[in-house]
Design a protein that fits this description.
Luciferase, domain 3, 13-stranded mixed β-sheet, 30% strand
Length: 513
Amino acid sequence: MPVRTPQLLTQILEVGRDQDIALMSAASPITYGQLRLQVRNAAAALSSRRLQPGERVLLLLPNEASFATAIFAIWRSGGVVVPMHHRSGTDQIVRIAQDCQVTAIICDRSVFTRVKGRLQEVPSLRFAVVKGPLLRAERANSHTTAYDDAIAFEGPDPAVSADPRDLVALMYTSGSTGRPKGVMHSHESLILSLLFTRDHLGLCSEDRVLISFPLYHLFSLRVLLSHLMVGATVIVASAILAGLKNAQQTRPNALMLVPAGCALLVEEFASVLAACAPFVRRVCIGSAAISPHLLEQLQRLLPDAEIHIPYGMTEARIGFLEPVEGRAERRLRAVDPNLELRVLDENGRPVTRGIGEIVLRGSALMTGYWHNARRENDRMRREGFRTRDLMEVTAAGNRFLVGRVDDVISVGGEKVFPAEVEAVLLAHPRIRDAHVRGEKDPRGVRGQVVAAAIVLEENAELDVDEIIAHCRARLEPYKIPSSLEPVAQIARTEMGKVTRLAPTSSVATGAPT
């Protein structure tokens, strides 16, 4: 019997058979039958608290099965999920709760202990659901419910009727360019991205995927939901190494990685990763750029695994990338058919050859930003969302992701894309990691110069002349770093984004500036 294509996120759980394992974590495995019952009960508990359709619920749970139960319960009762990292700072939690006027918060004991003294600062908040032991006074408080009581609650099933265009998720960006923005997604926009992911990867009920990165992040959440959509098993771990050390028992055939975690495994725990080679057949690596050298090392350790590089952002899952021999940048391999991807120049004209900004339209795109006027969001969806990502279109029609508008370095009027220089540096056998940025030309002649921070391989010595010779053989003169800064590490978020450097001192390279 053909599987019905879901129109609402609440319908995703209809595929898995009652007896099949849906979720595995540190606690006991949960079957699809158990998951559906817990979701129904928790949704009834939320409804009994008078949660109304469209009201926002802040979700702060660690990587465990309860996260999935909670998010589906919120949707079943008609709520809008606002997921955050459970280790977010208290000030940030309060700011987000105030910004979107949350009605409820679902969190673990550690989060509640930290924030409960500040919840009076959120006037819209009516109740909290806490996973973990409640104090006697908290149990007596009518505004607090234990998570375990919620998933065992027996009450009328709310099963709120919904429209595919209804708001279901409010995802706050990291705020790298200022105050975090709430990205709005509907049932439709998320489901279309899940269907694209399912079809592109060929997911099926036999799959067992290991997720070890925060489920609040849309990269992780898409992996979770797309696998539940086909009745597969999702193995949730608190960290990738912990997940892999249990892999001989859980036997995942798919891994979800980010470059930082991949580098850690390849460099420090190669034997643990190699032990998974007999059963791992698919690896998805996303969230940040990954070096060709690291991809080669990963493929050697997992020779039978297909490696996929998802490309997207909070606003949309755009497609998948692939490395191309002889090119530092990655080529666009596939685009979600529910998105129109255009490459436009600074004047809004299509780029048929050269570099331009990626602009998106389509039903798989976010519905807009929270607090934007409706006309602004409508205009964006009509005219296109400017991603700030740059793409090169070649004469052969290939499209390569080359960087970000904000990261472009202008050296005497020439544009330098950091990703290209980083890829060249990472191809040097003595360099483990690299980060390239623009700095003001100290002579005031060329506007900016290229500066590079590098992490050397263990016991490797810095040989500036050798590294620059390596760059000269592969880059135009104006792209060669004018300074190299050896650093102990290039600090990144757990999703692989560069945050700050731990510097020693920079060394002039003698490259022309």
